[in-house]
Amino acid sequence: MRGCERRRDRGFVTAEAAVVLPVLVVFAMALVCGLLLVAAQIQCVDAARTGARAAARQDPAEAVLEMTRAAAPRDADVTVSREGSHVRVTVVARPPLLSGLPVEVREEAVAWAEETAGDVGEAG
């Protein structure tokens, strides 16, 4: 009887491996994509903060854009605007290697312009 049981079980390991291996590959790819997304988000945060600090110091607009683009992911869109006494820097990027997916990361940083930062303390 044992010989018959072994013949029937032959191939189960191959069938299970054929199902499990693609699932493991897809899982590993999802993890890598998630890590790339998180890395791009962190770069956008750093770039927006760098740009906001530079804009708050009243650096020239070209210098602010250059510094922000240097810290941002490649081909990121950078927007610098001033709203009253605040400067706002927005960085929008598509993560590298995920350009085929409709995913983008976005980060904004807002800072007080230095010329007005001293005025608030004097008013009190």
Automatic annotation (TrEMBL):
Which InterPro entries does the entry link to?
A: Rv3655c/TadE, TadE-like_dom
Q: Which UniProt keywords apply?
A: Membrane, Transmembrane, Transmembrane helix
Q: Does the keyword Transport apply?
A: no
**Occurrences of domain TadE-like (ranges):** 11-53
> In its keyword annotation, does this UniProt entry include Metal-binding?
no
Q: Which residues cross the membrane?
A: 12-40
The molecule here is called TadE family type IV pilus minor pilin
| Native species | Streptomyces broussonetiae
Taxon lineage = Bacteria, Bacillati, Actinomycetota, Actinomycetes, Kitasatosporales
